Amino acid sequence: MTKKTPAPVLVRHVIWFGWKLVILLSFALCFFALLRLHFSSENSASSSPNSFSPARARSQISRDNFHGPPKIAFLFLARLNLPLDFLWGSFFENADVANFSIYIHSAPGFVFDESTSRSHFLYNRQLTDSIQVVWGESSMIEAERLLLATALEDPANQRFVLLSDSCVPLYNFSYIYRYLMGSSRSFVDSFLDVKDGRYHPKMSPLIPKGKWRKGSQWISLVRSHAEVIVDDEIVLPVFKNFCKRRPPLDTSKGKLNIKLQKQHNCIPDEHYVPTLFAMNDLEGELERRTLTYTMWNLSAAKMDNRAWHPVTFNYADASPIRIKEIKDINHVYYESEFRTEWCRTNSTCVPCFLFARKFSRGAAMRLLSEGVVGPFEASSLLGNLS
Ligand SMILES: *[C@@H]1O[C@H](CO)[C@@H](O)[C@H](O)[C@H]1NC(C)=O
Ligand SMILES: *[C@@H]1O[C@H](CO)[C@@H](O)[C@H](O)[C@H]1NC(C)=O
Ligand SMILES: *[C@@H]1O[C@H](CO)[C@@H](O)[C@H](O)[C@H]1NC(C)=O
Ligand SMILES: *[C@@H]1O[C@H](CO)[C@@H](O)[C@H](O)[C@H]1NC(C)=O
C-alpha cells in the first residue's frame, strides 16, 4: 500500500505542472499574437495609400516612375516556339528598342535562345511561371492573365497586344505604334450572341445574362483595362465552374457520347474579356472590334454543323493583292446586332486590321519578301535562316 501512494502524488504533480505550462504558453502566444497584430497594422498604416493592393501599387508606379517613350507590350501565346520568328525579328529590327517589349507564354520550361529562336529579340522573353495550357479551356485565360500581369510590372508598357504563334503584322512597326498610341481606347471585339446558348443559368447572379458577350480572343488593351483583367477575382472563378468546352465527338466512346454531347458547351476565351468589360461598364471606352484579321471557312461550318474554322494562309494565299484586300477593309458588320463598326482610332478613319492569322511559314516568308514589315534585304533573310 505505502508503495502505491507516491505514484499518484507524482502523477498529480506532473499533471499540475503540465497545466501551468499550458496556461503559461497560452498567455505567451496571445501576447505574441497581439504584438504581431500591432506591428503589422502599424506597417500597413505607414504605407496606407497602397495598403496591400497590388493594383494600387501598380498605378502608383505608373504615375511616378515612368520616363521615356510609352511602350507596346507584345504578348505571345505560344504552344512551343514561335514559328514565324523570322518575320517578327525583321519587324522589331525596324523599331526603336525603347518603344516595345516582348513577353511569351509558352510550355513550362521552354526557353527561347539561339537554339530555339531565329531572332535575338525573343531570347529569354518566356515567362518563368507559365502553365500548361489546354486550347479552348480556361487555362488559356489564365495564361493571358499571366502575360498581362508580368507586362504590367514595367510602367512604360502602355499598350498590350495579345498575339498567337501564327499571327503576323500587316504593317511596319512605326505604323502600328502610331495607330495604337493614337487611341486611348482598347480594341476588344464584343457583341451579343443570342443564339449560341453558351451562357449557363448558374452564372447568375454573379454574371447577369444581360452582360454576356462574345468576341475574338485577340485583343489590344490600354493599361487601365489590362489591370481590370489581372485584378478580377469574381468573374474568372465563375468561368472556371460554368464555362467549359464540350469534348469533341469521339466515336470510340460509343454510347457515352450521347451523354457527353448533351453537356453545356462554352469556349472561355471567346467570352471572358468582353463579358468582364461589359460588367465593369467599360464598353464606352472600347473600339468594339479586333485588330487581328481571321479568314473563316464557312463551308466547313455548313458541312459538319460545327463552329467556324479559321483558314490557314499558305504561300499562294499571301499574294500582294490578297494582302491589300485585307488592309483595305474599313468596316466590320456584326450580323447579330445589325451593327456596322466603321474602323477608327481617335475619330480618324483607319484600316481595321493591323495583324492577321493564321499564317504558315511560307505565307510569312512572302510577306517578308514583299517588304510588308520593312525594307526587304535578301541577305538578312539568309542570315536569319542559317
Ligand atoms: C511604314 O509604313 C508606312 C505605311 O505603310 C509608310 O508610309 C512608312 O514610310 C513606313 N515607315 C518605315 C520607317 O518604313
Ligand atoms: C518611338 O517612340 C517615340 C516617342 O513616342 C516616337 O516619336 C517614335 O516615332 C517611335 N519610333 C518608332 C519606330 O515608332
Ligand atoms: C486625338 O485627337 C485629338 C484631336 O486631333 C488630339 O488632340 C489628341 O491628342 C488625340 N489623342 C491621342 C491619344 O492621340
Ligand atoms: C474548308 O473546310 C472544308 C471542309 O472541312 C475543306 O474541305 C476545305 O478545304 C476548307 N477550305 C479551306 C480554304 O481551308
UniProtKB/TrEMBL annotation:
<dbReference type="GO" id="GO:0016020">
    <property type="term" value="C:membrane"/>
</dbReference>
<dbReference type="InterPro" id="IPR044174">
    <property type="entry name" value="BC10-like"/>
</dbReference>
<dbReference type="InterPro" id="IPR003406">
    <property type="entry name" value="Glyco_trans_14"/>
</dbReference>
<keyword id="KW-0325">Glycoprotein</keyword>
<keyword id="KW-0812">Transmembrane</keyword>
<protein>
    <submittedName>
        <fullName>Uncharacterized protein LOC111275218 isoform X1</fullName>
    </submittedName>
</protein>
<keyword id="KW-0472">Membrane</keyword>
<keyword id="KW-0328">Glycosyltransferase</keyword>
<dbReference type="GO" id="GO:0016757">
    <property type="term" value="F:glycosyltransferase activity"/>
</dbReference>
<keyword id="KW-1133">Transmembrane helix</keyword>
<dbReference type="Pfam" id="PF02485">
    <property type="entry name" value="Branch"/>
</dbReference>
<keyword id="KW-0808">Transferase</keyword>
<feature type="transmembrane region" description="Helical">
    <location>
        <begin position="21"/>
        <end position="39"/>
    </location>
</feature>
